[in-house]
């Protein structure tokens, strides 16, 4: 009889733990977002994220963000991903602490904005930033592509990572001397195929990217017009390791198991105390 009673208590405790954890998660997701944060997050997304993830979060050369985020605290999972990046992927670290350009407040606004979407994408999409016009450039001899068209494509696709003047941001400095017999072929291959083991994805349509061969030729021609500037050694930020198991439903399971073990231990100690 005592065993059945303890088993019933244990089952009720387990049920209470599950309900509490699910309620906590649903309450966190149901919090009303601050309109000011939504507006700031939309602007930051348009300026920093849309080029890879798409203006509606459906993915481009980056992952789809318009989805449910299975985690006890989805806000912590999203903000950690933005701040620290994802090792082994094309997602760099964006926080100032990791060498990126975004403050903690900006990352929080981005997180609130992304989590306000659901599966349908954002209700409010900020317009893409307008690039400043550049002086007309003369096409380079023996190089395919129009640098003037390449400048437009650069502002639309590359400046967010490499900076408006190619001096680097979360991506490499492109305003440099290219040590190659045919630097145009080196640059074109890098844009087309990406760089394995780095944050540079493949941009060519042949490799799943959004750019045609003609557009890549234009981009190549523009990059070659950038003046060589010595920016010194740029430290490479090391993203903090992330554990997707504990950030998702695996974390819920671990907490439940730990809770059950604590209850079982307490019941065992109580039973032993009565027996003595």
Counting H and I runs of at least 4 residues, what is the number of helices? Answer: 11
What gap, in angstroms, lies between the N and C termini? 19 Å
Helix content: 40-55%
Remind me, CATH topology of the largest domain?
Answer: Cytochrome Bc1 Complex, Chain D, domain 2
Number of strands: 0
Kindly give the count of domains. 3
Q: Can you write the helix and strand succession as a string? A: HHHHHHHHHHH
* CATH superfamily placement of the largest domain: Cytochrome c-like domain
User: Which consecutive residue ranges, at least 5 long each, have pLDDT under 50?
Assistant: 22-30, 233-247
What is the CATH level 1 assignment of the largest domain?
Mainly Alpha
- What portion of residues belong to β-strands? under 5%
Architecture per CATH nomenclature, i.e. the level-2 architecture of the largest domain: Orthogonal Bundle
The quaternary structure here is single chain
| Overall outline | elongated
Task: Please give the largest β-sheet.
Answer: none
Radius of gyration (CA) equals: 25 Å
The overall pLDDT average reads 81
């Amino acid at each position: 009889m005592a065993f059945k009673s303890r088993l019933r208590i244990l089952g009720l405790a387990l049920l209470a733990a599950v309900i509490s954890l699910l309620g906590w998660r649903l309450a966190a997701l149901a919090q009303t977002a601050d309109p000011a944060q939504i507006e700031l997050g939309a602007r930051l997304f348009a300026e920093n994220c849309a080029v890879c993830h798409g203006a509606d979060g459906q993915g481009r050369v980056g992952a789809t963000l318009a989805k449910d985020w299975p985690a006890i605290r989805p806000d912590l999972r999203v903000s950690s991903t933005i701040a620290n990046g994802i090792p082994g992927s094309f997602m760099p670290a964006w926080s100032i602490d990791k060498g990126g350009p975004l403050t903690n407040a900006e990352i929080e606004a981005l997180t609130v904005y992304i989590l306000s979407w659901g599966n349908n994408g954002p209700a409010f999409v900020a317009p893409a930033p307008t690039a400043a016009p550049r002086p007309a450039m003369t096409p380079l001899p023996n190089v395919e592509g129009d640098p003037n068209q390449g400048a437009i494509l650069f502002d639309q696709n590359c400046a967010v990572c490499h900076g408006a003047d190619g001096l680097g941001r979360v991506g490499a400095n492109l305003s440099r001397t290219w040590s190659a017999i045919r630097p145009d072929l080196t640059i074109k291959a890098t844009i087309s195929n990406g760089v394995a083991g780095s944050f540079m994805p493949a941009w060519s349509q042949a490799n799943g990217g959004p750019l045609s061969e003609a557009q890549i030729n234009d981009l190549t021609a523009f990059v070659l017009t950038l003046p060589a500037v010595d920016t010194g050694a740029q430290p490479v930020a090391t993203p903090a390791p992330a554990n997707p198991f504990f950030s998702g439903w695996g974390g819920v399971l671990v907490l439940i198991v730990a809770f059950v073990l604590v209850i079982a231990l307490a019941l065992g100690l109580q039973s032993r105390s009565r027996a003595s």
